[in-house]
């Protein structure tokens, strides 16, 4: 073979590689002078007629102008995902060429969203609304570059050109109030055993319409045994709320709780208008207490607030921590009951006080409440009261705050101050003076002094999350004290004794003759580096006229080594007027089975994700127990948790348990079985959420206060990234719970979980939900066949680079080598419009029909004749 023939043969085989090399050479070595660069189609094929008109790629890097949905980033900070028009970038002699050859069309509204200080650039005033701003010419040092492959618009703005706004600020115009919808959240737990059966149902329902939210919380409980049966429904609260954007506040009307920063939180039925921290970029997002405790065996934990059961769950032996309390209940002291299987119980109170009162300089935080006092106790009255509080941030790290509570038999005034002391932490001090009239007609007045301190010693690994003390004189009472209809009394609830009989059990006790004296509260953690960490949590409330107190402390140590974790905990609690003190010490150990196989960092198999556990405990009555078991996760999405345990105690003999919890598309399901020598018990849990919206009803896992509805019609069974067990239903809808309000929430579909006939043009969406909203994230799913179709026109292949569009579905593709067009989302029958130039003779239309059997194949390969457009009917083409 001659050399010229070998060259031509190699050129035919290596055409695509030579084309890529030629394109790179035109970038690296541009033509000198002012003439336009020219791309010779002969680089792709010796037959230039077999190549489409590629002049649109000859300038810059050839991306076509148009509207693209891109992620907008400003100075490496994500701003939004929006549709933006891109125009061809002007070619300036001697200037560097943009990577995409496109420039964004950003008007003055967009510059405001980017945080540009409009007053600093008078030339911006000449641009009308909607008119594209020459960004790089108007703002010196500004750059806008489109990464077309990632569809990311990178905008660089000099810091001097930006307004003085906090990092992460999202303007209210971006906040999404969501769609109109009805919501239902449910949680059902049941227990069936040898002695008694019990059931608990919690329902949280609501309606969303524009910025308005209607909510209702209620619970139903039922118990039965040899001693009888009984059940009741309790309405915890009904309210309407909405945001007041102009005031950066929340308005609540109905049953709710007041704030707890200046005064203790109180339940009320009335109206509340208060500042919303979450609307501010860098403000605190609130504080919720962590309920800690130690269970000697498989136990039921019940958390009450203001007489209502707000949380109920089953825990395994050893130390436990509950940190996911419902945000609507995160105020006021929490009454915790740990019910063991042998009938014994622990009862203690977790006080809920806030961290020191500090506000940013220049910010005023307020709350106004008017309504009837409301609690879950039948022994308390419902006096009407008015409350107002204010917290103002002052210069030099100071904060001034105060407030007042007024009722017919109660008046209180508070004044306090806080200081950020830098390296010495933060501190606040306030005093409350109150005049009270109790239920027996006696009148009292007194003062209460509160001190709060918080400090993080990062270099030493020490964190005083909260250290506080409150001292009250003998005559000081709170509005909650005044609401009691008797000076002294117990709160009872019906329970089942060891013989299966329904008996009243004292749950709490109050005695106003013993007014509160001092309350100490601490939450301290200390890191020991590679040797683990220590923590101390607890509180003590003392009273005037008695040596009794409400006391709860827990001390713990935890650590880890090569994947092995261990902890040692000790707790002590004593409640005034109830049983004697209870002290418990517990040891827990967890060993991943992967450490035994040497696969420390792999989680590929069920064995790799399994672990062995050991736990032992002993209380002050001499009751001891130990338990060992195996647990882990199963299934591809790791959404099935299981545990199997076997143990022994000196009171109940041998015992064992089996538990499993599954997080699925339509909810969560849990089941368990445990036994000892005295009884056998089964427990189960079913929870989930339902959303009724304009496109139907969507079921999902338990809802949060704010949620995201995914709409991807036809894309069934697609998983959602970073959401265990959440995937689209058979219609292509799903609910992502617990969205972050007034912040960008990234919602992404897992493309690896899509079937062969589903394509998503863009699998990522960003939403900014308002408080309580159900926002919708729309995804454009193309459902159909993925195909390689060879198109023949006038006895020749359709030219390389021609664009192809299915006229009905809109699916698009481009012709590659050998005249084959790759198109996804095709219907089984349709018409393909191919175009490779501007003239009428540079387009054609091809009918095709694929057999249903191709739905079982990853890719369909076929051929079709492409006829001149004038020679056949062009149904639906444009």
Automatic annotation (TrEMBL):
Keyword Cell division part of the UniProt annotation: no
A single cellular component GO annotation: cell outer membrane
Chief localization: membrane
Pfam families: PapC_C (PF13953), PapC_N (PF13954), Usher (PF00577)
Family matches, as Gene3D superfamilies: 2.60.40.2070, 2.60.40.3110, 3.10.20.410, Outer membrane usher protein FimD, plug domain
Record's keyword annotation contains Glycosyltransferase: no
Stored SUPFAM superfamilies: FimD N-terminal domain-like
Alphabetical keyword list: Cell outer membrane, Fimbrium biogenesis, Membrane, Signal, Transmembrane, Transmembrane beta strand, Transport
Molecular function terms, GO-annotated: fimbrial usher porin activity
Record domain PapC N-terminal: where: 38-189
Localization: Cell outer membrane
One example of a Gene Ontology biological process annotation: pilus assembly
Membrane topology listed for this record: Multi-pass membrane protein
Occurrences of domain PapC-like C-terminal (ranges): 788-852
Segments passing through the bilayer: none
PROSITE patterns associated with the record: FIMBRIAL_USHER (PS01151)
Family from the record: Belongs to the fimbrial export usher family.
Name of this chain's protein: Outer membrane usher protein FimD
